[in-house]
Design a protein that fits this description.
With 100 residues, the protein is mainly α. It contains 6 helices and no strands. α1 crosses α2, α1 crosses α3 and α4 packs across α5.
């Protein structure tokens, strides 16, 4: 079943309006990576980037092309540990949270 645009907009609005929800998503992405589910983690990170920084600002911050970041955070993307670490760090700063 394909996700509708309304669903993605709802998630983005919730991320923007509810810092606790945004932090919970970041925590979940971290947990998924550690538990060996990087595909799901990357999709959560993609939603967080779209709702907060945006791919253009993220690209500037971590010095990577936006198009590469889109590919990295797709279900089939294969980011390096350095790149994924940079994405997590940028999101932590944008959300003003710590990962526990």
């Amino acid at each position: 079943m394909a996700l509708t645009r309304d669903f993605k907009e709802t998630v983005a609005a919730r991320i923007q309006g509810d810092p606790t929800f945004a932090q919970a998503l970041l925590d979940e992405a971290t947990s998924l990576f550690v538990q060996g589910e990087p595909e799901s983690a990357k999709l959560i990170l993609r939603d967080l980037v779209n709702a907060t920084l945006g791919f253009e600002a993220l690209a500037e911050e971590i010095h990577k092309p936006a198009k590469s970041l889109h590919r990295m955070l797709s279900a089939s993307g294969n980011p390096t540990m350095n790149n994924i670490s940079a994405v997590f760090a940028a999101l932590r700063r944008a959300l003003r949270v710590e990962v526990v």
